[in-house]
Structures are given as structure tokens and as C-alpha cells.
Amino acid sequence: MAFCKVAFTFSVIFLSCNTIVSFAHPVGFGWWGGDRAPVSSIGSAGLFPGYYRVSCPQANEIVISVLKRAISGDPRMAASLLRLHFHDCFVQGCDASVLLDSTSKIASEKNAGPNRNSLRGFDVIDEIKAELENACPQTVSCADILAMAARGSTVLSGGPSWELPLGRKDSRTASLGLSNQNIPPPNSTIQTLISLFKRQGLNEIDLVSLSGGHTIGMARCTTFKQRLYNQNGNNQPDLTLERTYYLGLKSVCPQSGGDNNISPLDVSSPARFDNTYFKLILWGKGLLTSDQVLFSGNVGNTMQLVRRYAEDEELFFKQFAKSMVRMGNIGALTGLKGEVRKNCRHVN
Ligand code: HEM
């Protein structure tokens, strides 16, 4: 409900602001990540796009058909699945550790602070896995399913596609502790964001382009409340918030209670993968502190990158695709390491 209210309120505002972004810059080169391929050495060994060409040629088709069904029933699901891959990759690498349920030996990452009451999409992953097990038993890993689901969700939302290296194996362990340490909190400073991405082998270009994943999906009031009422411990809001946007957010997210009310991360087109996320940031309408500090943090090149992606959607799409491949390569288990789980929630 909160979603419709805010989206409606702000779509009006958005229309009246349409003219703000127009820059003229050369396209496709330079440090902001145009055509220059980022060095992609991180954990990429052994992954390649044709991994299932013989063993399960219909794997991606199956993923897409389940995604279509799931997203048509629940349009937010595309966003939730994109986020699931991110939360997997930042903890022990992209090994499907995030999907494991708790047992006597495993403390599930699902109970970590950034994930509890927040991560969604586990049932959709189960459905994809069940169909894949039917078609090609014990062949397609849960980690690869997460990577294919993230790409499929991006494409089905109107975003870019990319050649996806495959062949990840699934972990036999999870780490609740690393989930709490490695996944950036929503009130992060720009320095914290840069250093948490660096820990994964990702740079500022990856940070800004991948944050563009917030062009779809929702966040709970609890993740942005501090900005509305007490950003710096002086009972004042975050002054980088545009005023009308701020007033709208207060109506969805009261000072007391309402913690689970949700608001779109991209208020003008919450289900469409586009570059409005970056335009909104220029206008002081980034939802999370971590969104707004990419522009106002005044560190490194992130501010210029936000401008570049706001002005040039194609550039953003190209870089997002490259950075998703880089993120998807983090700590991949290949060869004899790991296993292909039969059920994504449990080790074999
Ligand atoms: C840069 C650091 C990041 C921070 C601090 C951050 C934080 C958050 C938070 C707090 C939420 C809302 C969760 C909730 O209220 O339950 C969220 C949602 C989301 N995040 Fe991020 N995130 C970051 C990076 C990313 C990346 C790299 C991606 C993917 C490429 C991503 C994709 C998403 C998506 C799609 C949603 C919406 C999920 C849904 O609607 O279910 N985020 N993020």
C-alpha cells in the first residue's frame, strides 16, 4: 500500500522535474568505465558461458520460464532475486551459502542482520531448482541458478543482458558472521562502501554501477528512518534529502512504529530497470544514505560516476553488465571444490 501511495505522489513530482538532466560528454572511455573492460581476474578461473551447453542446454530457458511466472505474480520478485545474488557473492563468494537453512552444523545466513525479515525469493529458487533437477539431475548448481536468476531478472525488468560465466559449485558451509561483516549497511559512509567493495576485489566503478541495482525494488522504513529523524544524533533529518521527497517519506515511515512499511528505492519507476536511480540521486531523492553518499560523499570519483550514469543510460547498462560479471566471479568454487546440491537449502 505504502508503495502505491509514494509512487503516485512522486511520479507527479518526477514529471515536473524531467528537464534537469542533460550533460554532454564523450561516451565510452575513461575512468568512469565506458568501453574499457575492468580487469576481471577475481576468481574467474574455470567459469565459462558454455558450461551447461552439453549437460543441460535448456538450463537458462527453464530459469527464465519460472522467473516469468514468478514476476508476473509478484513484480517485486525481480528485485529480490537480483539482491539475493549480491548477498550470496559478498559472503564466502558466489557459492549459494545464502540459501542454506540452519542445522546443528550450519548457522544460516538467512538470520544475519542484513538478511532477516528482508531477503526474499527463496521459494522461487526452489522452484527453479526442482524443474532443473527434473530436466538435468544433479547438474546445475544453486550458485549458478542465483547468477542466472539475477541476470534474467535484470533483463525481464528492461535492463541489460550479458554473457554469464557458469560452472560455480555450491558450498558445504555458510557464514552468518561474514554476512554481518561484509554486507554494507544502509547508513554506510562512502568510505565504508568503498572499503567493503574493495574487500571483495571490486572498485569504485563497480560500487556505483552495481548500486544502480536499486533502480528496482523496495526498502523497509527501518532502513532509512534515521535519515528522516536523526541523521547525525542531533534530532535533525539528513539535509541532502529533497524536501518534498522527505515529506512523502515521513508519511510512509513515522518516527515511531511502521518499521516494515516499504518504499521504492527508485520512486519514479520502481519496477523498471533504467537509469532514473542516478537521476533521482542528483535531485536529492536517493532513498538510503548509501545511495545518496555516492553523490554527496565527495570521495574519489563516485560523484562523477553518478552524473555520467544519470546522463547516459547505455553507459550505465554496459558497466552494470561488466560489474555483475565481476561480482559473479567472486570466490567461485570450481573443479573438485564444493558440490552440486540436490536441494538448495541443504548440503547433500
Ligand atoms: C552498495 C551497498 C548496498 C547497500 C548498503 C544496500 C542496501 C540495501 C537495503 C537496506 C535494501 C532494503 C532491504 C530491506 O528493507 O529489506 C536493499 C534492497 C535492494 N538491494 Fe541493495 N544495497 C547495496 C548494494 C546492492 C547491490 C550491489 C545490488 C545488486 C546489484 C543491490 C540490489 C538491491 C535490490 C534489487 C533491492 C530491492 C530488493 C527487494 O525489493 O526485495 N543492492 N539494499
TrEMBL record:
Ca(2+) 2 binds at residues 215, 266, 274. Heme b binds at residue 214. The record marks 83 as: Transition state stabilizer. Disulfide bonds join 56-136, 89-94, 142-344, 221-253. Ca(2+) 1 binds at residues 88, 91, 93, 95, 97, 109. It is found in: Secreted. The keyword Disulfide bond applies. This is Peroxidase. PANTHER family: PEROXIDASE 72-RELATED, PEROXIDASE 9. It is an enzyme of class 1 (oxidoreductase). One of its GO terms (cellular component) is extracellular region. Removal of H(2)O(2), oxidation of toxic reductants, biosynthesis and degradation of lignin, suberization, auxin catabolism, response to environmental stresses such as wounding, pathogen attack and oxidative stress. These functions might be dependent on each isozyme/isoform in each plant tissue. Its EC number is 1.11.1.7. Substrate binds at residue 184. It comes from the Eukaryota. Its cofactor is Ca(2+); heme b. Residues 1-24 form the signal peptide. Keywords: Calcium, Disulfide bond, Glycoprotein, Heme, Hydrogen peroxide, Iron, Metal-binding, Oxidoreductase, Peroxidase, Secreted, Signal. Belongs to the peroxidase family. Ascorbate peroxidase subfamily.
